[in-house]
Request: fold
Amino acid sequence: MGIAAAKSKTTTSAQGELEQLLDTSAQSAARGALLGQMIDMGWQLLLAVLGPILLGVWVDGRTGRSPMFSLAGFTLAMVISSYLIYREYQSIQRSTESSKNTKGHA
Reply:
């Protein structure tokens, strides 16, 4: 009986270590995914803000109507940025909901 108890204790200990490793691995994967999303969002916002503003400055220089097109570019940049942030928020909400649904069924 002592051997069976020792095997059971060893198995339980090994299972606990395995679960801990899997949790750590899942956390690392989640951090990596979050970092990737943050970098992607940063590039999108950078281009969404700089593109219209620089285009507006360039058009102002060509037409001599400073700051009309620069301000229009800035306004367009804010609209595009707001849309990108809203879209990312919706994506996070969907993934959170699907995560809750998956955990609820498990």
